[in-house]
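User: Reviewer 2 asked us to show a designed sequence for the structure in our supplementary figure. I'm pasting the structure tokens here. Could you produce the per-position amino acids so we can include them in the response letter?
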């Protein structure tokens, strides 16, 4: 297997899921105790979050570029970013980096398109829902993403940063998220993208009526495919 380089810590709750899932998927693939070689650079999310909300994406791109170069020099043979939102600066991150990059939106869009869904609701941070960097990737595969109304986008963003990134899960927030899945269904969504790596803490195929596509799960499967 190729050595996997991960840039994580944004937040630690989802990075833990990446590590666990990549190891579990590898065990299952080989049918034994085989696990992947992973090099993880885990960042201080407080610094990242401040720059996000200051709209300083140039600085964020430079920060991730330095981490990607470090991973390549450390021996990583493929690279993945353990967050949806920070894919906004993926192009800048990959400057002077020659190893392949596994893009989370590409991995997700391929599966949704293959399963012939057309209008997935995108539940994520406001950065991901309201800017075009992610939506354009989905559109490239013929998808027509459904974005929740403003009030619901505010709820999703707030719960992600104020609760899920701190590993806080509440019944109240789960109910709010479930109400939003009904809302997007009513405006035409045929499926749901858990477009923030923490949203899977509250939503899944068992409590959502529409088909659910968890970006962490789909991303990890594609990372493993490329590592193999």
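Assistant: Here is a per-position design you can include in the supplement:
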């Amino acid at each position: 297997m190729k050595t996997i380089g991960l840039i994580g810590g944004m937040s630690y709750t989802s990075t833990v899921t990446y590590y666990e899932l990549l190891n579990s998927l590898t065990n299952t693939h080989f049918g034994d105790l085989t696990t992947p070689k992973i090099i993880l650079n885990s960042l201080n999310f407080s610094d990242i979050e401040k720059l996000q909300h200051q709209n300083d994406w140039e600085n964020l791109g430079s920060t991730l570029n330095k981490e990607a170069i470090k991973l390549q020099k450390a021996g990583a043979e493929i690279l993945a970013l353990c967050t949806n939102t920070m894919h906004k600066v993926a192009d800048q991150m990959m400057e002077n980096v020659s190893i392949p990059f596994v893009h989370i939106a590409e991995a997700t869009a391929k599966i949704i398109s293959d399963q012939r869904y057309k209008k997935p609701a995108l539940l994520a941070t406001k950065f991901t829902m309201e800017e075009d960097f992610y939506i354009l990737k989905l559109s490239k595969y013929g998808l027509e993403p459904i974005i929740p109304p403003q009030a619901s986008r505010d709820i999703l963003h707030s719960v992600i940063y104020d609760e899920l990134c701190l590993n806080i899960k509440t019944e109240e927030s789960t109910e709010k998220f479930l109400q939003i899945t009904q809302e997007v269904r009513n405006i035409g969504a045929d499926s749901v993208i858990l477009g923030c790596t923490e949203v899977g803490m509250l939503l899944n195929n068992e409590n959502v009526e529409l088909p659910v596509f968890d970006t962490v799960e789909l991303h990890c499967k594609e990372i493993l495919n490329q590592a193999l």
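For the response letter, you might also mention the following. The chain has ten helices and seven strands. The radius of gyration is 17 Å.
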